[in-house]
Amino acid sequence: GNSVTQMEGPVTLSEEAFLTINCTYTATGYPSLFWYVQYPGEGLQLLLKATKADDKGSNKGFEATYRKETTSFHLEKGSVQVSDSAVYFCALSLRGQGGKLIFGQGTELSVKP
Amino acid sequence: DAGVTQSPTHLIKTRGQQVTLRCSPKSGHDTVSWYQQALGQGPQFIFQYYEEEERQRGNFPDRFSGHQFPNYSSELNVNALLLGDSALYLCASSGIRGTGNTIYFGEGSWLTVV
Question: For residue range B34-72, what is the model confidence (pLDDT) as tens digits?
Fold first, then answer.
């Protein structure tokens, strides 16, 4: 079936450290891929997206590249800040099923000053 | 431009009761989806509405039902509440009958069943 697997958290980093959160997927067809972020006590916010192979999504210093050959969409940031502390969700949607997202289990990031 | 709005933000219900949650989509969006997010888990798709009909459904029992109104707002109803229904319920909206790529989420309704 269709699924998303993320690296387990929590991930704890010092401010200005490099961040990688791994995400791999299994899907029929060619999905669109997303990263959402959830700050404490809040709903989900779209962070970035990519709709086809080799696309790179980017926003607020975060990047992720759609790798069809490895079925991956790893999230990276060169220098994290305390304000980046949140839970990050990788998700996919399938063509013809717009509006339906399949999420990973989430990875909690804690950035210490 | 108002985003996705949900109400109530928090509520407590007793096992066996029924609950109704409400959602107004982002302006210009016609499609509403509902998700259940248990503590420490990723959101799980419940169902999706557009043109006032249920179009897709996830793996949830019939106790979960919904409705969409002509103004595109939506309700999620859960009957015969179980302790395991305690979760954050998220509403999401998108455009173009669900084919629009960007999906926006509300801040959710926290349901506690005691």
Answer: 999 999 899 999 999 989 999 999 999 999 999 999 999
What average pLDDT does range A11-34 have in this prediction? 94
A81 Cα to chain B: minimum distance (Å): 23
Q: What's the pLDDT tens digit per position in B82-94?
A: 999 999 999 999 8
A77-103: pLDDT as tens digits: 999 999 999 999 999 998 777 678 999
Across the A:B interface, residue pairs with CB atoms under 8 Å apart total 70
The answer, for A24 touching chain B at a CB cutoff of 8 Å, is no
Do B105 and A36 count as a contact with CB atoms less than 8 A apart?
A: yes
A61: left (phi over 0), alpha (psi -120 to 50) or beta: left
Q: Is the peptide bond before B25 cis (omega within 30 degrees of 0)?
A: no
